[in-house]
Here is the input.
Amino acid sequence: MNSYMILFIIAAYFAVLLLIAWITGRNNSNEAFFLGNRKSPWYIVSIGMVGTSLSGVTFVSVPGMVRAIDMTYMQTVLGFFVGYIIIAKVLLPLYYKLQLTSIYSYLDDRIGRRGYKTGASFFLLSKIVGAAARLYLVVLILQTYVFNAWNIPFAVTAILSILLVWLYTFRSGIKTIIWTDTLQALCLVAMLIVIIWQVKDKMGLDFGGMAQTLVESPHFRIFEFGDWHSTQNFFKQFFSGIFITIVMTGLDQDMMQKNLSCKSLKDAQKNMYTYGFAFTPVNFLFLALGVLLLTLAAQQNIQLPTLNDDILPMFCTSGILGGSILIFFTIGIIAAAFSSADSALTALTTSFCVDILGVQREEAKRAKRTRLKVHVMISVLFVLIILAFKAVNNRSVIDAIYMIASYTYGPLLGLFVFGLFTKRKPRDKYVPYICIASPLICLATDFLVKQYAGYTFGYEMLMVNGGITFAGLWLSAIENGNLKIEN
Here is the structure.
């Protein structure tokens, strides 16, 4: 496939995104940037959130994970759906009642000023490291399989990637990305279906034969009820999926900012139900693709790469599935990567402006200038973190950083659960120390339990982390033997 054709398709793709940004960016006030003037159609938000949830790393990782854990990831996905219902019923009514711009503002009145700043800081740290790690791995894949053909340096690829995201988000933020993310979500799902179809044709199967191949595969194992020590145990996966969704969606400014841009609470709830329902079959398709790739490799004696994350890229770039598949793969991974990166950049800008700088108290023109400066600053920080990851040049280190970042959502879970389900008032001065100590205790616990008991914590560590934070807040509410009750 002509490399210039791929470059043309990428350029055309971003031209469409910039056109959407120009059309939607005529009102570039802070209200439009932060909340889309609270006029976003719920069904458009719902489609876009599918793309936001499925990062570029998900696009390549989920099919590859089938080799290690079969399709048991679906147990977690089923838990996700329950989590979305809880968000719609519990968190969204609270956010709309308080008319929040940043969801962490809730912590200011309920927990205290330090608790508020701590919660926002944990989000900022988690999001920027996690989003940069995701984008780094995608930029690395694009660099390896696409841009090396033109001898373009990695730094240039990284800078151009962030610059393009900045260009179509800097004017109107959420008002723009609910539309660009919708386009990208549709492109992502379309490319996924095209790739599955190409694999089916390569195997010489019709639709019925493909379904039969999936069901008869030893990797078509969804449920694991037997081994409690296994990280794939159904109860661990399912309940972890619920809490992962509550934290990574319901307590995440990135995901909730789109919901808060809807016209009403009822619309936001409809968005959450629809998005949660659609997210399940999309993940199933990713896993089904993984099963088909493994079956094709076994049938044709194709040597698979060592890393699971390299399985899909190898098939799409080696010519096994035909030359045109590289175009579909490139569009799919760009759509997945940038629908995640643009909303992360917007959410980080919003949180820093509102939670750290307090721009809502500034005069409108000055607040807008502040927001534009912060947007540039965070974009530059994205580039620097990506280049730092490249300098380390070690995927295991990146995975470790990403894992540590995921630990930092535990304190957010503890803070919100404490605020929502108790009337206690913790001593605000201790809250930052409790939230810092909790993930550190979890890391030490994970290491010691694995060393001496042979048990490996999975996603359930998130619940443990939140529980430790909750316990610390409860204890901090005890003063002279009495519990401090919120008035």
Notes: The mean pLDDT is 86.
